[in-house]
Structures are given as C-alpha cells and as structure tokens.
C-alpha cells in the first residue's frame, strides 16, 4: 500500500512539503520496465473494405511480442501521432507510452505529489509497466492529446447545461459543436426550457425543448458529415414532469416509422444513405429522468402532475401507468428512451450543496454536476487472475492507487473545451476508474454471469476498487489538499462514503474468491472513512463502469466493461494477414477449474469450435452449461440477468454503468416495462434497453394488412351461415426450353460451390440450381431438393424479395469469409446465395430497401454520390457495348479482391450472433459489436461514441 509522508523534500528553495511514498508493484529497482519485455517489429497494413485498396500503411512498428495483431493495429492507426512517412511519426509503443507518462510524471513532480525523486521514478516505471503489459488503459483522449502540441484534453465525458433563454440555447449548440469536433460526446437536460403548452412574456406560445432538439440534431449531423468517421455522441434528457414529455418520448419512434415508410417507397435509408439525413433526432440517445414519486404512481395506478417550468404549478395531470407504458412502447419500437432514476442518482450525490445532478454523458455512466467532465481509465481484471485461479488482491489494490494518483494528476495539466467546464472540473476533480474483462474473469473461474456467485465476485471487486480509490483520494487530500468544493459539501460527501461502506457490509459472499476480496474491501472502506474524516477527499467522484470500446481492444480484452462474453468463438488476426477461428481461451481454463480432465476439455473445445455453443457438448454436465452462457447465441443470458448484475455493482460506484439490456426480438412491451420497473426497485441509476431488430422490421403497412386479413378470416369462420368463398389459386409459369442463365462459383467459409440462375427471356428470375458436393452425397441431395423447391416457388410467382426476407442472415456452418468483394461475409451458404441473387436480379431501389449494396455502390455512398445514378450509368455502358470484352472470371476477380482486403475481415458475425441491424463501421466496413450502450469495431477500433 502507498503511504502518505510528511517529508523534508524541498525543491528550488521552496518550503518542505508532504508527498506520497510509492512502493513497487511489478518493477524492480535499477531495471527499466521496457528491458524485461521481448519486443518485435511488425508491419501494419489496413485495406479499404470497399475496393481492397490500402488506406493505411506503416512498416516496422514496434510492440511487445505478446500483443495481438489487432491491438497493435488499433494503437498504430489511432494513437500514434505524426504524419505517416515522416521522421516525426511515432513508430514504437515505447514512444507512445513515454509521451503520455512523461507528462504525468513531470506534472506530479512540479505539483508536489511525490515525497522524493525516487518515488517519482517508481511512479513512472510502474505506470509504464502497467500500460505496456495491458494491465490498464487511459481513455482515448489521453492517447490522442497528451504530450502533443494539441490541447491536452484528457476527458471523454462531458455534461452541459441549458437555461430557458435563447442565448443559452444557442450557446448549447456552440458548446456541443466544439466537443463533437474534438471527438468526444456530451449530455444535457432540457427540462428548464418552457414547454410548448406555456406562454412567452410576449404573449406567444413557447417552442418547447423538442423543437430546439431539431437544431442540435442537425448540428451534430453536420459536424459528423464534415469529416468525422463516427456519428456525434450525445445524450438528451427530459424530466418526467415536463409538460412536453409525451412528445419527447414518441419523437424517435415516429421518426423510425418514417424511416420504414421512406425505405418502403424506395428511398435510400441505409446507414450513410443519401436520404437518411431527412430523418430527425437520429444523432442522440434520449432518456427520461423519472422520480420516485412517478414510479410509485405507476405502481399504484395514480395520476401524475406535469409542471410548468417557471412557476412549478401543475398544468396537466396524466395517468402515470399510461405514460410509463408509452415509454416502454417507444423503447420497444426504437430502443429510445432509456430511463435515468433521478432520486437514486441524487441520493448518492457527493456535492448536492453545489447543485443537483440533472444529466449524464452519452453512455450514461458519468452522472455529476452540469458543465463538468470526467476522464476515465479501465483495469483489465483478467490480469489479476493467478495460475491457481485466485484473485491477486494485493496487486489490484496497489494498481488502483497508482491509477487514481495518475488520473488526479491529469486534471492538473488538462485543457477543456469551455471555460465553464474547466472551472467545474478543476474544482471538483471527477474521476472515472472502472474495469473490463469481468465476463471473461467470471467464466475463467467457473462462475456463471447470471448467478449469485458471479454477482458476489463482481460486487466484491467493484467495492474494493471504489474503496481503494476513495481511500487514495483521502491520502491525496492530505498531500495536495481536498477538491475546492469539498468544504461546502463535506457532510453530504461523507454521508455517501458511509452509504458505500454500509453496502459493502451488506454484501453476501458465496465462495472463497469473493470472500477474500470482500475482506480486503471492508478494510479499505474502514481506512477510507478514517482518512476522509482527517483530510477530506481530493475527488468528488472516483468510479464508474464505462463501455471500454477501443481501449478494451487495446488491452486485448475478451469482454468489455461489465458485459458478459459475446460468444464462445472469435477470429484471431495473424501476423502477415489473414485470420483463424479460435475458441476463447477462457473456456479451457474454466473447464479445468470445473474439474474436467484434459481429454474431456479437448473434446468440449473441439465441439464448441464446430457449433459455437455448449449444448450437447460431449461430457459437459448440464449444471455447467450456465457458466458458458453469453450475451447472444444458443444460450443467451436472460434480460433480467443483465439487470441483476448491474444491481450487484451499482452500490459500489460513484457514477453509473454504461450497459444496454438486450432483449430478443420476441420480447413484448410488458417485458420492457418489467425491466424498467425492476431497474428502479434494484437501485440502478440508469438503464437502457435494445430489442433485437427493432429498427429494421417489416414495413408497417404489410404487417397491419396481414393482421386485418387474419381478423376477417376469423370473423368469417365465426359466421353461422354457410358461405361460398372463391380462392384464387396461383398458376405456374414454366421456363422455356432455352433461357439465359449465369453460373457463379463461390466460396463461403472455405466451402466451395456453384450456382446457376436462369431467367425468363422477358426478365425475372425463374430457376436456381446449386451444387456443393459430390453427386450421391447427402449434401448434394439436400441442395438439389432445395433448388427444386425454390425454382418451383419462383415459377408460381413467389417474389425473390420474399425468399430474401427468409434466408438472408440465416446462420449455420459453413459461414465466414467469401471470395466475393460485394459480399465479404456470409452467415451461411443460404445467406450468401440470396444476397448474390439480389445483387444480380433485383433493381437498386428494391435492394436498397433490403440494405444490400454492391462494393461499387457502397463506395459511391461514401463519396457522397448517388448509387442509383451509378447503376444507371453501368446499365447504359452495358447496352452500349457491341462486342464482348475479355475479362477475368467473376469468381477469380472476387477472390483477388477479397485477398487484397484480407487485413479487414468482417469478423465474428456468424459466430457471435450480432444483431442484424448493428451498424457497419464507416472506417473499415466491419460489422460492429455492442460495447456498453455504444458499438465498437474490432477491425480498426472505431466506436459509435465511446472511448
């Protein structure tokens, strides 16, 4: 443990000062941490997913040999500074770490954080060792900015404020723009703005906050299109008692209906499409700030009053249950709004004398004062799992001390986007330490994510982390003083510390692992309370759980933030290009911990590699299935399992948790109501949900029409009198003896096949033949039968679009990479076949409605051109050709394009069961995966808003 010392150290004739006595964790005296690492040189080449061209190339970069190719690629492309190809360009991880840590150490020395030069050297070496060994990572702005000529911005999370004045609203637009330009996100509560049901002093009616949201949304979209590769990340919050709350709740759901209608009419509503900009409110996450009063009214079925913004008087009463239902319905339709539980948040607020907590950052984990910011860092928990499967409590404590010290130092030298944010952050010094790889740690130790044992481990670790953080904050207060706003908030701050300690006392341990962690946590909280009484605290906030998108990949984490494992298999990038499918390395360790022999482990791992799940795995006992449950797939964790895990850790966090509770497509509005209600009862601070495919359903008109037809049929069947019903039967339109056809050779996941598609002379697909194995084999027979069934259906008039809706995204082996540049990844042979048929036989407008584009069309979209115009140009060029030109066979051309882009594989979708409407990365084209309430690209590290 680090000690606080009153030393006689003097610098430059200044008076003696106190300082921290640092102790070594991983390093040795006289040995630089880099000297104990085996370094190697690599080449980083990133290719364009649209045409296979190289969009980034740097040779001879230097990384530790144990860093994965993916982690090295992401750090090289995102975090190395300097123009590529110039001597100023960073080429080694050593340079990157030295650039960042050098500023931290220098600032710590200058501001009296260390008792001696030796302590400063220990701090420097330990920080470099931990970063180089992927034990923890600072958030992205630190790596972008610290030690460069750019402003030293270290925060990723910002909260703004806006008042009921036009000047304030316009200032809000400006501040958001500055933050978005820097690649960060912000949140704001608009509840101070008068509703559209209230009068202005001039006698007119106010516009209302939803109206002003349009301007802010357009601003965010414009800044995004002005050069950023990810959408602007923002959060908009409205209090549940605001008179415009119903309009706010339904805003994005109505826009989602518009998206479906426009897509059905042939407009390009795909991600990045030219027509999607006509839809509003798409650049923000929306959350309703609900009170305990409202939630109790929901339980009792009472009315709830909506209040005027200036006078506070009730101007309208609504049925609380009905309003709550509207929230759940809107979330069922489009995933917004989420909920923020206002009274819970402010009950754990350390500085209420300064002001209430009204909003959050875009991912909802940072909740504190208006006009403030928070810098984040996350610990890789798997690094503390010893060979004997015990948790390294002692080193975890020491590392947490080290990180909190470094994070507090960063506020001293940091720059901020606005003066107000800088003043608040320096006065309250909010920190956000968190962790990643919890899911991997639980699985490796044989704990099911949704179990009492798993929650006990998570709760104990979180309590220990926050207890150590505040104990270190009290020590820092004894050395360099408490935060400026502590004096006026001393009593409420200490009250919250006692609440954390009491929650720790109530934590129920299950096994030896969590018992040992909890025992140390209790000791840390006891010491924290004593030191806090003596010195106060250096930081108003210490901990939260961020999504750890890019930095999770930087640390080679299997799981991000508080999330469980996404799937049991993944693709590993190889040096020199290419990839291989591997079973997650935590699985063999978990099986060994559960008592299986090596032969059994090998058999189970082989089964998982083939099937991507554990159901019916040879020798695996049923009671152990739950250990391998994942966020998606054959055995997906139930929604309430995610909520219960959040509840197990929330009492030990200063802030909140970035996490979206995923629900299956079959989930009902009642299910979402239950999740929101339980989140409040279990003491969460914020909660968001996502129902699979809620943003890409069938056109509403078709669904409603079908339901009406069903109702009519039921009513007709109930009639007592006999009626004659004429049924129009389809007729078969047989193919002529001679018909045009095209044969395509394809490869899906290494399995080769041939497809011959024949058309009617007057256009229109009418026949498909498939060959994938030797004649007489079972697979050949099945494919023949399937071909006949599809062909007959087409000849009877079944539209190709109908088959598309049934077979696209179907998932089974073989699956994976294809040799087709237009379709880089297929979840099955059927998925590939019908995507290829769509590209070959459907017009652009119909394919656009289904979200299927060729490589050339995607490239045109990225350049801001009209893909439909491109298609018309290609058609005219084809008609103008009077003689055939010699060209490579289509299969060979696709294979070469695929190989040229092999560094940017579309990873994991077929095995990790990603949601069908997860966005494609706008940088490299890889299907992104969830990270908290955001998305992260495993191909290049880009995120949809989280750092």
From TrEMBL:
It catalyses: a 2'-deoxyribonucleoside 5'-diphosphate + [thioredoxin]-disulfide + H2O = a ribonucleoside 5'-diphosphate + [thioredoxin]-dithiol. Its cofactor is adenosylcob(III)alamin. Residues 44-134 form the Ribonucleotide reductase class II vitamin B12-dependent N-terminal domain. Residues 736-839 form the TSCPD domain. GO terms for molecular function: cobalamin binding; cobalt ion binding; nucleotide binding; ribonucleoside-diphosphate reductase activity, thioredoxin disulfide as acceptor. Residues 863-906 are annotated as: Disordered. This is Vitamin B12-dependent ribonucleotide reductase. It comes from Nonomuraea jiangxiensis.
